[in-house]
Amino acid sequence: MTIETNTAGVLALILIMTLVTLATRFGGVFIMSFVRISPRIESFINTMASSVLIAIIVPMAFAGDGGAIAALSVTAVAMLILRKPLPAIAAGILAAGLVRYMF
């Protein structure tokens, strides 16, 4: 099955992706409503969130351009110093913008 990339096709793809996203989100909540959250399951959920974040960041660290590496480095250092995620992320975005603007 193929969908043309004209306006109607793009809108159809967005609608399909929206429905799949909603189905997985609501389905997950529905299924988890039948599961008792034990300390072991809570630990698993917390670990999975970190794993997903690491899976996104590590490839960027090895294959990213100068802006990506600057953003990652500045964010990590700012997080260690400030211990607050929002200012650290803002510093990383600023670093990436500066590097890409200068080079």
Any overview of this molecule?
There is one protein chain. The protein is built from four helices and no strands. It has 103 residues and is mostly helical. The N and C termini lie far apart (43 Å). The protein is flat, with a radius of gyration of 19 Å. Helix 3 packs antiparallel against helix 4. The model has no long low-confidence stretch (mean pLDDT 91). It is 83% helix and 0% strand.
- The overall strand count is 0
Q: Quick one: overall form?
A: flat
In terms of quaternary structure, what is this? single chain
Specify the structural class.
Answer: mainly alpha
Extract low-pLDDT stretches: none
Order of helices and strands: HHHH
Percent range for β-strand residues: under 5%
Q: Alpha-carbon distance between the termini?
A: 43 Å
Integer average pLDDT: 91
Residue share in helices?
over 70%
Major sheet summary line = none
Summarize the structure.
The chain has 103 residues and is mainly alpha-helical. The protein has helices at 7-32, 39-63, 66-82, 85-102.
Main attributes of the structure:
mainly alpha
Topology:
Elements: H1 7-32, H2 39-63, H3 66-82, H4 85-102
Helix pairs in contact: 3-4
